[in-house]
What we know:
Layout: H1 9-44, H2 46-53, H3 55-61, H4 73-94, H5 99-128, H6 141-158, H7 161-170, H8 176-181, H9 183-197, H10 204-227
Helix pairs in contact: 1-4, 2-4, 3-5, 4-6, 5-6, 7-10, 9-10
Amino acid sequence: MAKPSIVPVNEERRMTVIEHLEELRRVLIISLIAWALATVIGFAISQWTLGILLGPVHKVIGGQKLIYPGPVDAFLLFFKIGIFTGFVLSSPIILWQVWTFVASAVAIFAMGIGFAFFALPIALRFLTGIGNSELQYLPFADKYINFVLILIAIFGITFELPLAMTMLGLAGIVSTTFLKRNRLKFWIGIFVGANMVTPGVDPFTPLLLTAPLIILFELSILVIRALRR
């Protein structure tokens, strides 16, 4: 009778690492293919997407058209919009490995995007209202779209805070006692982080991000406490 073979611990660990790397490679390939195909769709609907992105600024400047100074700026603008739209469309596939959290993550990401569109007209009115009648806001298309896309991405990603905190709480890495005891430090960290990631140097736009994040932080504490009972 043959003796059962014993796999050394180091060899077993090495096999596990290789398996994880193979799985990671497969996920990356599928994600890149999905992003590429979704980007083609993003290019096809880029004109429609541009109309949506221009919605907030048109609430401020009315029917005034945006301008671009360079001959290739319009092409680069639609290229950027197509890539960004492709990423948004392919995000469920990119997040495939965390499938159990995808529904919540996508919903929260969408909530962040929705809040960004709510906050944009308010921020634009505040920013463009600074000065006097001698100054006029003439938005360049590329600068405005950059501002909007960055703001949308920041709001969407940072709104994932409650999901990340809930996962850490369920894993036992953080507790509601720890979060409540260090509440003020987290609030200050949120405020400082909002000032670092939001575009521009005005103090108003970071506050639009800070306020909902603090609310989501407090909601996360309640969710963790409810789930760990």
